[in-house]
UniProtKB/TrEMBL annotation:
<dbReference type="InterPro" id="IPR017761">
    <property type="entry name" value="Laccase"/>
</dbReference>
<dbReference type="Pfam" id="PF07732">
    <property type="entry name" value="Cu-oxidase_3"/>
</dbReference>
<protein>
    <recommendedName>
        <fullName>Laccase</fullName>
        <ecNumber>1.10.3.2</ecNumber>
    </recommendedName>
</protein>
<comment type="similarity">
    <text>Belongs to the multicopper oxidase family.</text>
</comment>
<keyword id="KW-0479">Metal-binding</keyword>
<feature type="signal peptide">
    <location>
        <begin position="1"/>
        <end position="26"/>
    </location>
</feature>
<dbReference type="InterPro" id="IPR045087">
    <property type="entry name" value="Cu-oxidase_fam"/>
</dbReference>
<dbReference type="InterPro" id="IPR011706">
    <property type="entry name" value="Cu-oxidase_C"/>
</dbReference>
<dbReference type="Pfam" id="PF07731">
    <property type="entry name" value="Cu-oxidase_2"/>
</dbReference>
<dbReference type="GO" id="GO:0052716">
    <property type="term" value="F:hydroquinone:oxygen oxidoreductase activity"/>
</dbReference>
<dbReference type="InterPro" id="IPR033138">
    <property type="entry name" value="Cu_oxidase_CS"/>
</dbReference>
<keyword id="KW-0560">Oxidoreductase</keyword>
<keyword id="KW-0732">Signal</keyword>
<dbReference type="InterPro" id="IPR034288">
    <property type="entry name" value="CuRO_1_LCC"/>
</dbReference>
<dbReference type="InterPro" id="IPR034285">
    <property type="entry name" value="CuRO_2_LCC"/>
</dbReference>
<keyword id="KW-0052">Apoplast</keyword>
<dbReference type="GO" id="GO:0005507">
    <property type="term" value="F:copper ion binding"/>
</dbReference>
């Protein structure tokens, strides 16, 4: 299946592919992803960025539920990379899931790796991205999964659809930004612009000419597939004067949720219906800003508050080009109440054709504190707080990425790579949402995993803390989960479970654990393999806010991990 890739590569210049759907399909879809350096200009800065097939954002993968996608990844770049299919379970096949040093060794420059993506229950919008260093900043694209042949959307078929990817742009090379931070132990420089489909939009320097435009016809309805591919920023998103109806998130349908505003964390996707009903006659405005701006809980810290914009433009012969597009205001950058209201409104569709299976009896309870920390440096010579080095942890274990990948070590029983004592509970309870005393702020590195028996039901209560500016969007590989509750303050194990939604909780692969609050997820471990769980804020990953689940094989043949493919990248 081809869709404009050849045309785009001809130009070899970080081109934006078509944002409207224009293709046919088959049961098995073959793609070739050539990862390479491509010159690209934004904010009047030109640099080489890593792209797939010269496109930024990268190519869209289209498939139907139940299809298989086979991607041959060819690394023509100068650095190690890996690719991940975000939100796909990869049932029994962790081998091509992608996280570097967790399930594979990287694809080295000049090497290839063919990755198989079997879509089983996923339907809606997912995405793919690099899972090595900060490569995700430019190596990402949509993965769009239509209903099975002969089945339909659980809503009226939209006239057309379009995809918008929220992201961040650095004028510097992103991996230089990462290396500098890791060397100094200090903060990662904030990005220079937030972007929509790689473009900063009208309000940022040198960007106006390239602002993304979405053309619509009066009276028609559209499906917007919204993806947050930012390295750090959570976003408020709206379209001036247009109502939005969320109908899906993270590759699962939701009950239609009418709203004027969407809140989306890094790693998440939202499927949103829009009715283009605002252009009535020659004197009506015909252009409306599509806008996104970050949410940041603590405005004391340095952050990028830039608004990024695209334009919704009605196809009409009356467009008054000198009239500026209409802009609707977005909530204040620290408006936590609006975040909580939006997030609290998401419900699984949970109808006859889209049943849900929320675990009711729980075998494994976990209470995981998500925290930013420091690791002390000799002579207090690092650039983090107290002369230490920034770290992140889950239950005070700051993940040390092993040299031998965990899947390899598990499958071939290589000892000494990890230990199986990831703690189910914090060793130390305190008021997590209060200022944390310095001695508790320090953490330690280790490579700990949590073993799960096949078919175990797991509940995790994530507890956010007062340290750091933002929520932690926790992402789980290998299975989606139900978000059964979310609230502020310290989790109260007597009162808070009474508020759980076990009837129609949203099914997600990434949950925004609130700063100073908690979120509870549930899932059933029926996917044997090695599954990474990490904050989707990339710098928090590099600081260790991650851990690994290993789900053991079950008894029956179809409850066992598949053998590795022949072309696993060697170390
Ligand atoms: C990678 O794939 C390309 C294109 O199919 C081929 O030309 C090249 O020889 C392969 N490289 C390796 C190391 O297998
Ligand atoms: C934008 O377009 C105008 C008109 O074509 C041109 O004069 C200007 O140089 C362009 N700006 C940039 C930054 O490319
Ligand atoms: C044109 O449409 C606007 C709404 O966009 C309405 O307020 C106005 O009355 C209409 N004008 C005419 C001449 O129909
Ligand atoms: C614009 O005008 C042309 C020529 O009169 C007509 O064919 C076309 O349908 C018009 N388009 C719209 C969106 O009104
Ligand atoms: C176009 O918009 C500008 C700015 O809003 C306004 O001054 C002008 O009168 C409009 N022209 C027409 C023909 O409507
Ligand atoms: C949000 O930030 C503004 C400006 O810094 C501040 O005045 C306000 O108190 C903050 N609101 C909350 C809820 O933190
Ligand atoms: C720490 O400070 C001591 C005394 O000032 C100095 O001798 C030593 O080299 C420093 N160590 C590092 C790692 O900077
Ligand atoms: C925890 O600290 C916060 C912030 O100081 C305070 O509002 C809250 O009451 C404390 N909770 C408990 C249980 O002490
Ligand atoms: C985390 O571990 C470090 C190192 O073992 C210890 O100093 C610190 O007190 C622990 N913090 C918490 C919150 O348990
Ligand atoms: C998984 O466990 C449930 C009970 O929690 C049981 O009903 C089901 O049969 C089990 N499935 C498998 C494949 O073992
Ligand atoms: C790239 O990956 C190989 C294989 O794991 C490793 O030996 C090498 O050190 C890596 N290169 C860099 C720059 O990390
Ligand atoms: C135009 C604008 O607001 N630019 C800001 C975007 O964000 C960077 C990083 O915080 C700021 O330095 C710019 O001033
Ligand atoms: Cu985080």
């Amino acid at each position: 299946m081809k869709f404009g890739t050849s045309l785009m590569t001809l130009f070899g210049f970080c081109m934006l592919g078509s944002i409207f759907f224009t293709t046919a399909w088959a049961k098995t879809h073959h793609h070739t992803f050539i990862v390479k350096e491509t010159p690209c200009t934004r904010l009047c800065h030109t640099k080489n960025i890593l792209t797939v097939n010269g496109q930024f954002p990268g190519p869209t993968i289209y498939a139907r539920k139940g299809d298989t996608v086979i991607v041959k990844v060819i690394n023509q770049g100068k650095k190690n990379i890996t690719l991940h299919w975000h939100g796909v379970d990869q049932l029994r096949n962790p081998w091509t899931d992608g996280p570097e040093h967790i399930t594979q060794c990287p694809i080295q420059p000049g090497a290839n790796f063919t990755q198989q993506i079997r879509l089983i229950h996923e339907e809606g919008t997912l995405w793919w991205h690099a899972h090595s260093d900060f490569d995700l900043a430019t190596v990402h694209g949509p993965l769009i999964i239509y209903p099975k042949q002969g089945t339909m959307y659980p809503f009226n078929k939209p006239h057309k659809e379009f995809t918008l990817i929220l992201g961040e742009w650095w004028n510097k090379d992103v991996n230089t930004v990462l290396d500098e931070a890791l060397q100094s132990g200090g903060e990662v420089e904030p990005s220079d612009a937030n972007t929509i489909n790689g473009q900063p939009g009208n309000f940022l320097p040198c960007s106006k000419n390239d602002t993304v435009k979405v053309h619509v016809e009066q009276g028609k309805s559209y499906l917007l597939r919204l993806i947050n591919a930012a390295l750090s920023n959570e976003f408020f998103f709206n379209i001036a004067n247009h109502h939005l109806t969320v109908v899906g998130t993270d590759g699962s349908y939701t009950k239609p949720y009418a709203t004027d505003l969407v809140f989306i964390s890094p790693g998440q996707t939202m499927d949103v219906l829009i009715k283009a009903n605002k252009f009535q006659n020659s004197s009506s405005p015909s252009r409306y800003y599509i806008a996104a701006r970050p949410y940041i809980g603590n405005t004391q810290l340095s952050y990028n508050a830039n608004m990024t914009t695209a334009i919704l433009e009605y196809e009409t012969n009356y467009t008054n080009i000198s009239a500026p597009p209409l802009l609707s205001s977005l909530p204040a950058i620290n408006d936590t109440d609006t975040v909580d209201i939006f997030t609290g409104g998401l419900r699984s569709l949970a109808d006859k054709n889209h049943p849900i299976d929320v675990p009711e009896t729980i075998n494994e309870h976990m209470y995981i504190v998500t925290s930013l920390n420091i690791i002390l440096c000799r002579n207090n010579s690092c650039k983090g707080p107290l002369g230490g080095r920034f770290a992140g942890s889950l239950n005070n274990v700051s993940f040390e990425t092993p040299q031998i990948n965990i899947l390899h070590a598990y499958y071939y029983s290589i000892p000494g790579v990890y230990t199986t004592d990831f703690p189910d509970y914090p060793s130390h309870y305190f008021n997590f949402t209060e200022y944390i005393p310095t001695d508790l702020y320090v953490t330690k590195k280790a490579t700990k995993v949590k073993m799960l028996k096949y078919n175990t039901t797991v509940e995790i209560v994530f507890q956010g803390t007062n340290i750091g500016p933002e929520n932690h969007p926790m992402h789980l590989h290998g299975q989606s989960f139900y978000v059964v509750g979310r609230g502020s303050g310290n989790f109260d194990k007597k009162k808070d479970p009474l508020t759980y939604n076990l009837v129609d909780p949203p099914r997600e692969n990434t949950v925004a654990v609130p700063k100073n609050g908690w979120a509870t997820i549930r899932f059933r471990a029926v996917n044997p393999g090695v599954w990474y769980m990490h904050c989707h804020v990339d710098r928090h990953v590099s600081w260790g806010m991650n851990m690994v689940f290993i789900t053991k094989n079950g008894k029956s043949a179809d409850a066992k991990m598949l053998p590795p493919p022949n072309d696993m990248p060697p170390c």
